[in-house]
Specification:
Elements (H helix, E strand, L loop, with lengths): L13 H13 L7 E3 L2 E2 L6 E2 L12 E4 H6 L6 E5 L7 H7 L4 E6 L6 H12 L5 E6 L6 H7 L3 E3 L6 H8 L16 H9 L1
Parallel strand pairs: 3-4, 4-5, 5-6, 6-7, 7-8
Antiparallel strand pairs: 1-2, 1-8
Length: 193
């Protein structure tokens, strides 16, 4: 009978799995399916690096905010904001001139990234690309666009055809968003006068 306290040689140990997960986390990622301005992008030049200590060799790259701040002179780097980033006037001034900003969705159930995007657009008047990265699902895309995202890097198991259909599923929206500043009832009221 085998000794159950000894790890099976064919099964990786917990330490080996943790080491492998850490290496994968630090490896820059390219999303296979990128939606830009409501269309499937032909290519995705930008990679996303979650490594907080080392700059990726692949460029251009979105890197964690602190790493970007330490290397702002590198034009091929752009900030990767976590969903819990506190957007202060000083930070918005610092990132306001970059061409692109990525906002990470660590889980599709974490909605704080929507708030970060909307604050960038409405309060701080950021006009560049705002990209959703991480756990991005087809079901979220219309809401992301309404909050100010211009590009969305889909999770690997999401189908781009479904994404494009989801972006065009609604022709009328009741609530306001970053593009439509009047609710439907306000637009109807103005039209009836």
């Amino acid at each position: 009978m085998p000794n159950k306290s000894m790890p099976n040689k064919s099964t990786p140990t917990t330490d080996a799995l943790n080491d492998e997960a850490e290496v994968l986390e630090q490896t820059p990622l390219h999303a296979d399916h990128l939606i830009v301005n409501g269309e499937l992008a032909a290519e995705n030049a930008w990679c996303v690096s979650y490594d907080t200590d080392t700059l990726p060799e692949q460029r251009p790259a979105f890197v964690p905010l602190a790493l970007w701040q330490a290397n702002q002179e590198d034009a091929e780097l752009a900030p990767l904001l976590t969903s819990d980033t506190e957007l202060t006037p000083a930070l918005s001034e610092q990132i306001g001139s970059v061409a692109a900003i990525a906002i990470d969705f660590p889980a599709f159930t974490d909605g704080r990234g929507y708030t970060v995007a909307r604050l960038l657009r409405e309060r701080f008047h950021y006009a560049g690309e705002v990209r959703a990265v991480g756990d991005v699902l087809v079901d979220q895309l219309d809401y992301m666009r309404r909050c100010g995202f211009t590009s969305m890097a889909l999770r690997d198991d999401q189908h781009p055809e479904d994404a494009l259909r989801a972006l065009n599923a609604f022709s009328v929206r009741y609530q306001t968003d970053v593009e439509e500043r009047q609710a439907l009832f306000e637009r109807r009221l103005v039209a009836s006068k």
